[in-house]
Amino acid sequence: LVWLLVLSLAWLDPVLGGEEEDGEAVAKEEEEEGDMLSDELREEDGVLVLHEHNFARALSEHQLLLVEFYAPWCGHCQRLAPAFAQAATELRNESSPARLGKVDATAQVALANEFGITSYPTLKLFRDGNRTHPLAYTGRMDAKGIVRWMQRRASPSATLLQDTDTAAAFVSSQDLVVVGFFKVGWGGRGPDLAVAVAVATHGVVPQDLESEAAQAFYEVAGEVVDLPFGVAEAAELFQAYGLSADTICLFKKFDEGRTDFPVDPARGLDVAELTRLLRIHSLELVMEFTNETSDQIFSAQIPHHMLLFLNKSSSAQLALRDGFRAAAGTFRGKVRRCHGGDMRGGRGAPRQQCCLSPTQVLFVVVDVSGYGADVLPFFGLTSADAPTLRLVKMENNRKYQMDQDAFSDTAIRTFIEAVLDGKVKPHLLSAEPPEDWDTRPVKVLVGKTFEQVAFDETKNVFVKFYAPWCSHCQAMAAAWEELGERYKDHEDIVIAELDSTANELENITINGFPTLHYFPAGPGRKMVEYKSARDVETFSKFLENGGTLPEEPVVSEAPPPQGQGPHPPQGSSQPSRGR
């Protein structure tokens, strides 16, 4: 009996223990479900976990709340998560009124619909509990960018400069500062306490003040978070800085030291234009391409880049920077007159936006023996080609090369003007074709053979434009090879591919990989972009149908006769009618 009792306990113990563990798991799940049904605010890594039951409470308790709407399966959301958590921690450590929260938009469908969430991640800022007009996040998607963006909205977007001492201290405080001088920026009143409090609370000039230019200035200050902004209206400050009218001044500790942007009395201050000009003139006249400056160079959105490739270890090549720099000032923020029209217009004439043709050119020195070595293949260059010059049109990556490198400022200016006037053809890269390029099932095209193959009037040519490093291209490589095998014996169909990183085409710009284009037989230079499924069978349907996909028949069910219910589902015991 004793042994039976021991054995019974031995068998029952894990069962009872398991029930206890199961009970704990159930209790935990019920607790989590309870959290989702209550308005309690829970955190993960310093980020508020929000749902439809606690969202209103979060808005009421936090003056500034940046909310990330995410999907758990989204790769971009997963990459953002550590930076978002780091930003939340930094803001909390500095006792900022700004907080960060997150919403799983796939689970909280009502919130996703309320705020029009259609992509992930989407970040929105809620201010002062207002849930009807959230502000879209416009900063960088890293911890530093998020913190800066939130700091700018948690404090005045511009510092009020009351006298020459505070202005001088502000101007000398950093390498780059922006000051807006507005005679009526405060509605004709002095910077009284009420105005100062309004600015400190909201970070923008109140709408009841008179100067629309000042309001536009504060809007720019709220967005350009990497520059400190100040604002001045005192007459002594206008006099101290040699100004007589409303002006935006960019002070910098390099190049010319100061750039002024007068406010047009008729047009006022355009937010987008001022933002663009500040971005352009915040850069040095001649930038060096480094790890630290690369983001600035590309984010400035300057349409043309003039590049001097040199080896900094050579004193003779370093000396070439003088002529390069002398040419640079001519093209900074320059606006060219349109053909057949006056850029400014006569008295009373409307200002035509189409007559403004910004042709600013950013001048960049690339050290082929340093950080710049990594970009040489993009230009088809090696370090032995230095010194040399290239001009790049950023909208389509077209590259232009002098017939003969000449490094004087006059020669550089003449070359740039010729390119801008359309008098110079782009320099196109082309690899050498493999010996068996036209005997393979998939023909290997290069820049110099593309025209004769793609625009052969007797062939229908289907071309894949790819990059060797592109994972999407690698994923469809087998299907493209199989397609080549399937059509290798067809006289009028050619399956081909072109490496777009090593070959460039004059009239075709490839913006993503892979890109598929179909060039039908016959006269003319016709081209059809393929945008459907990337599998062999769909490719074949497309080819067999002459470069279009046959329309699939629309399948619909006829309504049942009046008085009858809907057809029973397939698999039911009742007979179903054919569909």
Automatic annotation (TrEMBL):
<dbReference type="GO" id="GO:0034976">
    <property type="term" value="P:response to endoplasmic reticulum stress"/>
</dbReference>
<dbReference type="Pfam" id="PF00085">
    <property type="entry name" value="Thioredoxin"/>
</dbReference>
<feature type="compositionally biased region" description="Low complexity">
    <location>
        <begin position="570"/>
        <end position="579"/>
    </location>
</feature>
<dbReference type="InterPro" id="IPR013766">
    <property type="entry name" value="Thioredoxin_domain"/>
</dbReference>
<dbReference type="Pfam" id="PF13848">
    <property type="entry name" value="Thioredoxin_6"/>
</dbReference>
<dbReference type="InterPro" id="IPR017937">
    <property type="entry name" value="Thioredoxin_CS"/>
</dbReference>
<feature type="domain" description="Thioredoxin">
    <location>
        <begin position="419"/>
        <end position="548"/>
    </location>
</feature>
<keyword id="KW-0732">Signal</keyword>
<dbReference type="GO" id="GO:0005788">
    <property type="term" value="C:endoplasmic reticulum lumen"/>
</dbReference>
<feature type="domain" description="Thioredoxin">
    <location>
        <begin position="7"/>
        <end position="155"/>
    </location>
</feature>
<feature type="region of interest" description="Disordered">
    <location>
        <begin position="541"/>
        <end position="579"/>
    </location>
</feature>
<feature type="compositionally biased region" description="Pro residues">
    <location>
        <begin position="558"/>
        <end position="569"/>
    </location>
</feature>
<dbReference type="InterPro" id="IPR036249">
    <property type="entry name" value="Thioredoxin-like_sf"/>
</dbReference>
<comment type="similarity">
    <text>Belongs to the protein disulfide isomerase family.</text>
</comment>
<keyword id="KW-1015">Disulfide bond</keyword>
<protein>
    <recommendedName>
        <fullName>protein disulfide-isomerase</fullName>
        <ecNumber>5.3.4.1</ecNumber>
    </recommendedName>
</protein>
<feature type="signal peptide">
    <location>
        <begin position="1"/>
        <end position="17"/>
    </location>
</feature>
<keyword id="KW-0676">Redox-active center</keyword>
<keyword id="KW-0677">Repeat</keyword>
<keyword id="KW-0143">Chaperone</keyword>
<dbReference type="GO" id="GO:0003756">
    <property type="term" value="F:protein disulfide isomerase activity"/>
</dbReference>
<keyword id="KW-0256">Endoplasmic reticulum</keyword>
<keyword id="KW-0413">Isomerase</keyword>
<dbReference type="GO" id="GO:0006457">
    <property type="term" value="P:protein folding"/>
</dbReference>
